[in-house]
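Two quick folds needed for the group meeting slides. Do the first one here.
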Amino acid sequence: MGHQASFHAPHGGADFLGWRVRAGETEIVYDDGVTRRMIWRVAAARGAEARLSDALRVAVGADRILPTLYDELKKRAISIERIQG
């Protein structure tokens, strides 16, 4: 069984942002509720779950979720690789 955390935009949008562990790999999932679904693999995420959750929580509360997500991950030195979307 994997671990996960998810967040929904508080400003009434259908935006979803979360992280999950699948087959030993940590992934970030973004879905705008209409047309866009993106998935990134997190490099060296072991032990970084709290930092990752904090970054996602800040990003989903922002008006521009994706640019904020990239900024928050960079601040926390969490590197990602896009695998879908």
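Then this one, please, same format:
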Amino acid sequence: MQRDKQQQILEDKKDLNRFGYAQELLRDMGGFSNFAISFSIISILTGAVSLYGHGLTYGGPGMMGFGWTIVALFVLLIAASMAELASAIPTAGALYHWAAILANKRWGWYTAWINLIGQIGIVAGIDYSFALFADPLLAGTFGYTSTETTTLVLFGITLLLHGVFNHIGIRLVARLNDFSAWYHIGVVVILVGSLAFFSRHELQPLDYLFQVGQTFSDKPYALAFLIGLLQAQWTFTGYDASAHTIEETINPRVRAAWGIFSSVAFSFIFGFVMLAFVTLSIKDAAAASGAENAFIYVISEALGGTFGTAVLWLVTFAMWFCGLSSVTSFSRMLYAFSRDKGIPWSRHWAQISVRYRTPAKAIWLVVILSFALALFDYILKRINPDTSYTTLAFLTAVSVVGLYVAYGIPLYLKLRAEAKGLFRPEHYGPWNLGTWSKPINVISLIWIVFISIVMVIPPNQNAGFALIGMFLLLLVMDLAYYRRHFPGPQAALDTSEEEIKRQESRFEK
């Protein structure tokens, strides 16, 4: 068995070398670990829970039955399309490399930067969600008042811890990711079982889950329902992590592809069951919607003080694991892009710790950028305290649009390359959609365009303004420097065999 594993690792290294890259990262992740990192980042106990009040306020209980299902079905198509490309082009650059290889280096450069914007938003959003839940729970225990300032401080401490754990090594993080996947499933089972058997009042009838027409916002229901989709759409982000860790995965053409698709499929199923029981436990939807934290309100009302608090702590720790996985994914994407000299001071972010075999400097840059985004919003609110949007809605909308636009670019370029005869059946990997590939890609693109518009309509227009500002900055950077000086991943294809061996020799014992 060990000999087979070593043989597969050797084949994977040769495969990576054919793309022009040295095997610098430690290839030690199995199929479950690869699935677990995406499943943990999707984290139904983070997205669906932290934005539960957002979904309930705008779409009412029907958001949990119809909204969750509609979004999940479209995301499954997007995940299948991305899994197909991961199987064909198994490098840690993922979306960025796919775009560059299917078109050219400038497409790749923009894809990488847009993905980077989305990754900043998702890391910040996840760890801020943890702080939003943990801070009031800690305040109740230690007797202080939870404020936006205390939440920001706890958010910063959480980021620091995730940076330390990721710096130490992929083996530890991989084991924690494995545990996180089982932990998420276990907590969902505990939460559902508790609500089913120990709720202090009767559950609502099943059709309550699909009740539409009720909104607690000032918007017409159709528009409010669309705004409420942010809850489900943000939950289903980050599953590209299986592709970003592809150079650390054994037999990645198969395992990483399944990791992308299966993480979405299992999140859909477990998330639906969890949301169903939470929503059926609502006694007063208007009171829940008006509460400072709708999810905490519903669980506390249904399960009572001590028991409810214990369950809420279990949910909150799941968010911590989600943030840990997200820092892993983002740092690998940043490392891969820096390796190709795509960002300022690239040589620093592309450095690998010889001791830990992790992109140490990239990890800490992730921590700094994620904190800076939340700090920016915090300062804006100090300047204009009458703003109606929440910090979490701002962070999550930025991440949804940034990530999904980055997801969509290589899908569009693949369709264009196929139409030109540049991407043919022999270019597919072992995991592919066959004759269903083109229609699934087209439907995926339509949904990405639609949802990207929905995510920045009022009251979340500030996220749209922030994204426009970021995209304009990218345009200036490109025209001023990178259009002429960015070598692109194709440059790595010219890397000599001797140079690849020299890079790999630094990590040989």
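Slide caption for protein two: The longest helix spans residues 105-142.
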